[in-house]
Structure formats: structure tokens, C-alpha cells
């Protein structure tokens, strides 16, 4: 059979004509996949060598074979229904003797042919040796990835350390000149350098306020870098928390008055003396008051409260022995300190992240996003915890717990 076949053979998008049947058969025989080409009614036109071998079809008998009923074990109408519903390719599972195959069926509209490819199921599942990666190779790859990650992590740590050192030295350099400037403001405002007009006093007071803000910022950097470089050592002493917080409230009262925000402080008299770091707790409370004042509009109120607290740590936070003890607490085991304001509040989705380093939510106020991060480190160093929630009178309420059993 060497005559030119009447029907064109479709290859990709190009229609080839003038090919001898022998040439087409040789071409198809060279393909590794088992291929069967049939007419719309299922009568087989061509079976390539691979298909003859896999499906066990003799050359002499394939023109008698029906693709749909015999090879695909389905009915032609069903196949065309699927194709007409927009399916470009139809996948079937078929059995031939003891063998199972995956068949994929495509319809070529122009000569109106159906082409089916058959792959033995066990062949499909067998991995290609060329792409098979040995366990050894996988382990090596994992080792390399681990080493690269470690190197990147160490590099990041070093860069982070350099940043902390830079921050600390810049802040340190700024500290002395700022102290000098503030000292001169105090001298001038006290009238030691001559009488001031009201206008001059107003301007000087405003400048002093800005200078104080700078001082706070610089000390924030110094504290942060000290905490970052692992220099946080608690000076634990038996102290009175009411005195500690009262001092902070007094230190801030002038700034509150200037802005027209009321500061209400109340401390439960039953709080006993206990061991804590006086300065560090003052710093944590001051950072919360600073924020409360910053975010509360004039006419608002900030409430600072401290009282004894029964702290029932969650199961994961305590050992089983402590857990058994917790219901028999004879007296409060901690102190709760809260700062509530009547400002705009903080959206719940930011309640966690504001305690991270350099995180700022409200871009309309000044700050470095370090105040809460520092407060959190200081409280956690006391084995305490700090969180924020919505305040009852609107605004936000920051609370920290300090355990009273510091050793
Ligand atoms: P900073 O105040 O320097 O920006 P903080 O760590 O103290 O940094 O606070 C982080 C962010 O949390 C602030 O930028 C602000 O958006 C928000 N925040 C803190 N305290 C309050 C508060 N009392 N009311 C509203 N927002 C607050």
C-alpha cells in the first residue's frame, strides 16, 4: 500500500498533504506512545507499532477493530457528548486482557478523526530513572539549604548587632548636648538670666517641651539598645509599688495639665511590698502614660490603677505542680497595673503587633514604635505579661501583671 492517502494528516495547526501512507505509518511507528487513529464511527485507520505491541493488535486485523467498543470499551455517542460539551481531551481507564491502561482521547475536527493514546498504568506510575532523585541526593540538598540558611541568619544577626551598636552610640552622643540645652532652658525659665516677657516664656516653654521629647526619644534608644544587646539585668529589691507608680504619675502630671487631659491615679492600699525592679517598672508605666497622653485629645481622661490580682496562668504556662496549687492560692500572687485612656482606641487586628519593635499604627503622632516593645521586654523580664484591650469608656486599656514571687 504505497498510494497517496486522500485525507490530509493534521500535525499541530498545519495540514500536510501529499504524504504517502507508508511515510505516515513510519512516522507514527517512530513515536514512543501507543497511538490509534480511528474514524468518527470508530473504525480504526492506523495503529502504530507501539500500540500494536502494547494492545496486542495484529496488523492484519486492525481495520476490523472498533476503537470505541473494543479498545475504549465505551460507546461513541458518550465520547462525542463529552467532546461537544467542551472537553478537549477525554481520559479513560481501560482494561485489555490482564493489562490496565490510561487512555486519552482527542477529536481532530478537520478530517473528523479520533486519536487515542494508551499508556500502561504500571508504566505511568514507574518513575523516570532520569528524574529519580536518590535519598542521598535529597539529604545533601537539605544539608546545603540548611548551611545557606544558617549563613544568612548569622549575617542578619551581625547586621542587626551593628544597627544596635550604631543606635546606642548615636543616642549616647546626643545625650550630653541635650542635657546642656535642657539645663539652659531651666535656667532661663527660672529667671536666673534676666526677666522674661510672657511671649519669651511661652516660646521657651514650648522649646523645652520639644527638648524633653527628644530626651525621651534618646533614652528610648539607649534603653532599647541595652535590652537588645542582652544587658537587661533586673535590680530586684523589696519595694512599694504604690510609691513607684505615684512618682511616675507626679512626674507626668505637668505634661497632662499642659494638654488639658485629666490623670486619675488610684492604687489599692492592700498591695504588699514585693521584689521588683523599681526603675524598670517606672519605665514601663511611663511608656504607657506617654502613649495615653499622646493619643488622648484635650478634655479626655487617663486612668492609672494598680491592685492585687489572682493570676491563674494557663496550663501551658505553668508546671503541673503549680497547676495543682493554683486553686488553693491563699492570697493574690500578682499585681495588675492598668492605664486606660479615652483616645481613639486601637483596632483589634493591631493588638498583638504594636508590641513588636518599630511597629507604629498611627502615623499622625510622633514616635519610633519602640515604647511598647521596651515595656513588653521589661515586664517579661519580671516573668509578667502585658496586653491591650478596648477600654470601657472607649479608647484603649493597657494592662500588665507583675508576679509577687520574684526570687
Ligand atoms: P510609638 O508611640 O513610639 O509609635 P509605641 O510602641 O509606644 O510606639 O506604640 C506603637 C503604636 O501603638 C503607636 O504607633 C500607636 O499607633 C499605637 N498606640 C500605642 N498606645 C496607644 C494608645 N494609648 N492609643 C492609641 N494608639 C496607641
Overall 3D geometry? elongated
Distance between the termini: 101 Å
CATH class of the largest domain: Alpha Beta
**Roughly how many Å is the radius of gyration?**
41 Å
Q: Spell the H/E element sequence.
A: EEHEEHHHEEEHHHEHEEHEHEHEE
What would the average pLDDT be, to the nearest integer? 84
The proportion of residues forming helix, as a percent range, comes to 40-55%
Separate helix tally? 11
At the fold tier of CATH, the topology name of the largest domain is Heat Shock Protein 90
This entry's quaternary arrangement is: single chain
Beta-strand residue fraction:
15-25%
Q: What molecules are bound to this protein?
A: adenosine-5'-diphosphate
Total tally of structural domains: 3
| Annotation, overall tally of beta strands | 14
Task: Describe this protein's structure.
This protein has 407 residues and is of the alpha+beta class. It has helices at 21-29, 49-55, 67-71, 76-84, 121-125, 135-189, 198-228, 241-259, 278-295, 320-325, 371-381; strands at residues 9-11, 14-16, 34-39, 44-47, 89-96, 99-108, 113-120, 237-239, 262-267, 274-276, 301-309, 334-341, 385-390, 396-403. It has three domains: 1-125, Beta-Lactamase, CATH 3.30.450; 126-231, Helix Hairpins (Orthogonal Bundle); 237-403, Histidine kinase-like ATPase, C-terminal domain (Heat Shock Protein 90, 2-Layer Sandwich). A five-stranded antiparallel beta sheet has the order 4-3-7-6-5, sandwiched between helices. A five-stranded mixed beta sheet has the order 9-11-12-14-13. The longest helix is centred in the middle third of the chain and has 55 residues, at 135-189. It binds adenosine-5'-diphosphate. Adenosine-5'-diphosphate (ADP) binds next to α9 and α11.
Amino acid at each position: 500500500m504505497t498510494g497517496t492517502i486522500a485525507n490530509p494528516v493534521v500535525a499541530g495547526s498545519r495540514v500536510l498533504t501529499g504524504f504517502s501512507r507508508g511515510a505516515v505509518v513510519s512516522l507514527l511507528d517512530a513515536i514512543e506512545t501507543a497511538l490509534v487513529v480511528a474514524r468518527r464511527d470508530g473504525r480504526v485507520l492506523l495503529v502504530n507499532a507501539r500500540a500494536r505491541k502494547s494492545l496486542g493488535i495484529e496488523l492484519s486485523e486492525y481495520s476490523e477493530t472498533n476503537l470505541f467498543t473494543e479498545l475504549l470499551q465505551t460507546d461513541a455517542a458518550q465520547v462525542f457528548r463529552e467532546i461537544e460539551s467542551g472537553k478537549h481531551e477525554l481520559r479513560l481507564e481501560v482494561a485489555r486482557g490482564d493489562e490496565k491502561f490510561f487512555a486519552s482521547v482527542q477529536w481532530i475536527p478537520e478530517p473528523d478523526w479520533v486519536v487515542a493514546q494508551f499508556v500502561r498504568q504500571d508504566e505511568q506510575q514507574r518513575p523516570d530513572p532520569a528524574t529519580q532523585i536518590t535519598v542521598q541526593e535529597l539529604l545533601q540538598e537539605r544539608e546545603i539549604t540548611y548551611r545557606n540558611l544558617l549563613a544568612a541568619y548569622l549575617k542578619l544577626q551581625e547586621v542587626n548587632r551593628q544597627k544596635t551598636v550604631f543606635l546606642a552610640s548615636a543616642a549616647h552622643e546626643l545625650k550630653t548636648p541635650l542635657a546642656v540645652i535642657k539645663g539652659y532652658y531651666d535656667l532661663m525659665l527660672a529667671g536666673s538670666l534676666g526677666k522674661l516677657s510672657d511671649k519669651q516664656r511661652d516660646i521657651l516653654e514650648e522649646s523645652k517641651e520639644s527638648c524633653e521629647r527628644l530626651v525621651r526619644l534618646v533614652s528610648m534608644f539607649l534603653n532599647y539598645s541595652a535590652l537588645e544587646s542582652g544587658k537587661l539585668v533586673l535590680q530586684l529589691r523589696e519595694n512599694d509599688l504604690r510609691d513607684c507608680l505615684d512618682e511616675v504619675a507626679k512626674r507626668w502630671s505637668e505634661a497632662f495639665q499642659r494638654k488639658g487631659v485629666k490623670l486619675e491615679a488610684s492604687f489599692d492600699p492592700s498591695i504588699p511590698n514585693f521584689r521588683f525592679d523599681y526603675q524598670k517598672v517606672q519605665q514601663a508605666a511611663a511608656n504607657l502614660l506617654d502613649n495615653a497622653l499622646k493619643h488622648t485629645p484635650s478634655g479626655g481622661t487617663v486612668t492609672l490603677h494598680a491592685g492585687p490580682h489572682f493570676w491563674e496562668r494557663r496550663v501551658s504556662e505553668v508546671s503541673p505542680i503549680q497547676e495543682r496549687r493554683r486553686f488553693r492560692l491563699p492570697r493574690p500572687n500578682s499585681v495588675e497595673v492598668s492605664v486606660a485612656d479615652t483616645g481613639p482606641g486601637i483596632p483589634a487586628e493591631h493588638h498583638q503587633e504594636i508590641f513588636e519593635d518599630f511597629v507604629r499604627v498611627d502615623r499622625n503622632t510622633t514616635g519610633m514604635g519602640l515604647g511598647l516593645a521596651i515595656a513588653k521586654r521589661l515586664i517579661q523580664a519580671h516573668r509578667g505579661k502585658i496586653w491591650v484591650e478596648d477600654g470601657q469608656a472607649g479608647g484603649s486599656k493597657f494592662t500588665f501583671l507583675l508576679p509577687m514571687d520574684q526570687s
